[in-house]
Design goal:
heterotrimer, A alpha/beta (198), B alpha+beta (391), C mainly alpha (174), B: alpha+beta, Cytochrome-c3 Hydrogenase, chain B, three-stranded antiparallel β-sheet, C: 174 residues, mainly alpha, Rossmann fold, three-stranded parallel β-sheet, 5 helices
């Protein structure tokens, strides 16, 4: 495979859009409940975009820029999706597993997965929603061993339980740490083991 | 290229030599967090049967500095100094990764001179980072001199950085929208002088460390990572290329001006052992310095005139709502920034995909079966920066 | 100095003995190899050829706290590491000195406000003799810190009784 075409200063862009489209088509054909999300702003900002954004915001329209991604509606099928991506679409590497807490009042966390293919040289992001009151999702370590530490880290930062994870210990925080720091409603600790935190 | 056959007495991973006259028992050895060879505050628990490692477990978090939480609490531009501090050996690369991610949301392209200046300085920083990797790897293996050689040249590089941005280690030079300032008068000449100087010194390192018999004995055929394992565990950078995988983001997913530069992607070839051993990882880094030097020269030749920054980006940045992932080739592998914006002046999420974090996760799986003394060689060849694994 | 320490009045002999002991101590400070974060790279640069900490007799970096006189806390200390720092400090033989290098070790630095695991200054667990400012400090700044520490050692009373006003108050250990 030849290298991807660089069309912006931060790397290839069109190729990734097409990769997301192709992956979406293949996944929906295989019966996965997936949805394709594509940005509706152009790659490069136009003149006077800030005004346009503000106006759209007032009207309740949602304009956004960045990467296209595939959203999986049923989080229970994440392991099957990963296996499909690895075996059928040649996404050999897991690049990142993480989560996003968009706002404290949101009922759901975003579970994010980023894949990379070394043969087709493409990238793919997959998003799935994890409700905060039932914060669990299957671990993808059996498919991608490289997700091991990423899941451990995300688990302690967001309080997500990755069911079936082979080694569910704390990653970065001390074992007796209370709270999930990257949740938006996290309260900073007052003291730890008698040492003041402020 | 000649290939030395593995010496017969060598233990393959998983294989054990049974000596009847030596009765051994399991001992647990705690390396770190304060240990001279763990490159910072990494802690590795090793269970050893006599001298043979049977299990290893890494403990992280001794330098967890909450970078991702800070990213959600400060302005887009205010976060830039924190990017300096996770991989402090390659701060320019970190600045670049974050700036590119923000620019993707802003939808702006940096003027050509800015892009060339960025490429040039990032490659210089790669040389500085690999110099540290090479010097401290010598220290780990037991050779003290390479450290002094490496620091001598590194100081010359730090002078160059200091001249353009005023800092020796934490630069914040590359920022969303371009770079901090244009090169001062005479700076490009200074870089060219460095290239000439470094070119003469580099063969010395090669003779001093890489072709050294003791060094080869300590690193060749030690800690072999097969190709498939490296890919499955998400290794990137010299760890992946050392295992013989031909993959470099600069060539395969080009950003900045890399598609206009000519360079070779170095992969491990088993120069003195098996493909994917500690020697090969170091070999890749050594030769990458030469490739980076080539790129610096080309940047100097092609450097256009003009502006270095995009005029629209001020101190307060309000990117469009959206999310963007940008992965760049850091000296240690793929440094990814995943940023989520809601259109305000503070990010909703700044996720850092740290290359040493992923590379390190494999280490505890290749250690079993090796000798205790080789554990140090394996950790050293991974070239981790703890600021980055823990963030 | 065991049985002889701080027993004698000021006179020509004891002053000379003190001068000699202090001179010996300040000219061969052995720091501990103990890098935490970014500042550790600058500490390594100080040990490197251009800045050469050996000129001040402090170049013998020891890998074990048992042989070290000086702990240079070079970098951010977080709670997980704090316990280890304290344990390392306790293992060092007397007399022992601590340099807090950089903004993080001095007071939390850039991580003061949102760093939930970052200790806001290493002086909350170990007593600090010299604070070096900077993020990270330049190697020259660390060398200046070392010289300040040497000045401090020069004024110490080893066999002589210190006057009450000279006894430093014990830093509070949280």
């Amino acid at each position: 495979m030849p290298a991807l075409q660089r069309d912006t200063g931060w790397g290839p862009m069109q190729a990734y859009f097409e990769a997301a489209r192709a992956a979406h088509a293949a996944l929906s054909q295989a019966g996965f409940p997936v949805e394709l999300h594509q940005p509706n702003l152009p790659v490069f900002a136009a003149e006077g975009e800030a005004k346009e954004l503000a106006a759209a915001h007032k009207e309740g329209k949602h304009l956004w820029r960045g990467d296209a991604y595939v959203q999986l509606a049923d989080r229970g099928r994440i392991v099957g999706l990963c296996r499909f991506l690895r075996d059928q679409l040649a996404y050999q590497q897991i690049i990142d597993v993480t989560a996003v807490d968009h706002a404290a009042e949101d009922k759901e966390l975003w579970g994010m997965y980023a894949f990379l293919s070394l043969t087709t040289k493409l990238r793919l992001s997959v998003k799935t929603m994890i409700p905060k009151d039932d914060c669990r999702i299957d671990s993808i370590v059996p498919v991608y061993p490289g997700a091991n530490w990423h899941e451990r880290e995300t688990a302690e930062f967001y309080g997500i339980t990755y069911t079936g994870h082979p080694d569910p210990r704390h990653m970065l925080l001390p074992d007796d740490w209370v709270g999930n720091p990257l949740r938006k409603d996290y309260k900073f600790p007052e003291e730890y083991h008698g040492i003041s935190c402020v | 290229m000649e290939r030395a056959a593995p010496s017969p007495g060598l233990l393959q991973p998983g294989q054990r030599e049974i000596e009847l006259d030596v009765r051994t028992q399991d001992v647990e050895i705690n390396m770190g967090p304060q240990h001279p060879s763990t490159h910072g505050v990494l802690r590795v628990l090793i269970r050893a049967d006599g001298e043979i490692v049977t299990a290893a477990q890494s403990h992280l978090g001794y330098l967890h500095r909450c970078a991702e939480k800070i990213g959600e609490n400060v302005d887009w531009l205010q976060y830039l100094p924190y990017t300096d501090r996770y991989d402090y050996l390659a701060a320019m690369n970190n600045n670049l990764g974050y700036s590119l991610a923000v620019e993707k949301l802003l939808g702006i392209e940096v003027p050509p001179r800015g892009q060339y200046l960025r490429t040039l300085i990032v490659e210089l920083n790669r040389i500085a980072s690999h110099l540290i990797a090479f010097g401290t790897y010598g220290l780990d293996i037991g050779a003290f001199t390479p450290f002094f050689y490496a620091f001598r040249e590194r100081e010359l590089l730090l002078d160059i950085f200091e001249k353009i941005c005023g800092a020796r280690l934490t630069y914040s030079f590359i920022r969303p929208g371009g770079v901090f300032n244009d090169a001062p008068p005479g700076w490009l000449q200074h870089v060219e002088d460095f290239c000439r100087q470094f070119e003469k010194k580099w063969p010395e390192y090669w003779d001093l460390l890489v072709e050294n018999k003791i060094f080869i004995e300590r690193t060749a055929n030690v800690g072999i990572i097969p190709r498939d394992l490296a890919i499955a565990w998400g290794c990137t950078g010299p760890m992946l290329r050392g295992s013989g995988v031909d993959w470099d983001l600069r060539r395969d997913q080009p950003y900045l001006v890399y598609d206009r530069l000519e360079f070779k992607v170095i992969t491990g070839v088993g120069y003195r052992g098996t493909v994917g051993d500690c020697f090969d990882r170091n070999y890749v880094r050594m030769l990458e310095m030469v490739e980076s030097l080539k790129m610096v020269r080309q940047c100097l030749d092609q450097m256009p005139e003009g502006e270095v920054s995009h005029p629209d980006v001020g101190l307060i940045i309000r990117p469009a709502p959206g999310e963007a992932y940008v992965g760049i080739e850091n000296p240690r592998g793929e440094l990814g920034h995943y940023v989520v914006s809601d259109g305000s002046k503070i990010a909703r999420r700044v996720r850092v995909r740290a290359p040493s974090f992923c590379n390190l996760s494999l280490v505890e799986h290749i250690m079993p079966g090796t000798m205790l003394a080789d554990a140090v060689a394996i950790i050293g060849a991974t070239d981790i920066v703890i600021g980055e694994t823990d963030r | 100095m065991g049985a002889l320490s701080q027993k004698f009045e000021d006179n020509v002999l004891t002053t000379k003995v003190d001068w000699l002991l202090n001179w010996a101590r300040l000219s061969s400070i052995w720091p501990m190899t103990f890098g935490l974060a970014c500042c550790a790279i600058e500490m390594m640069a100080v040990g490197g050829p251009r800045f050469d900490i050996d000129r001040f007799g402090a170049g013998a970096f020891r890998a074990t706290p048992r042989q070290a006189d000086l702990m240079i806390v070079a970098g951010t200390v977080n709670f997980k590491m704090g316990e280890r720092v304290k344990r390392l400090y306790d293992q060092m033989p007397n007399p022992k000195y601590v340099i807090a290098m950089g903004a993080c070790a001095t007071g939390g630095g850039p991580y003061y406000k949102f760093g939930y695991t970052v200790m806001k200054g290493v002086d909350r667990i170990v007593p600090v003799d010299v604070y070096v400012a900077g993020c990270p400090p330049r190697p020259e700044a660390l060398l200046e810190g070392l010289m300040l520490l040497q000045q401090k050692i020069r004024r110490q009373k080893v066999v002589r009784v210190p006057k009450v006003a000279e006894i430093p108050s014990t830093p509070s250990i949280a």
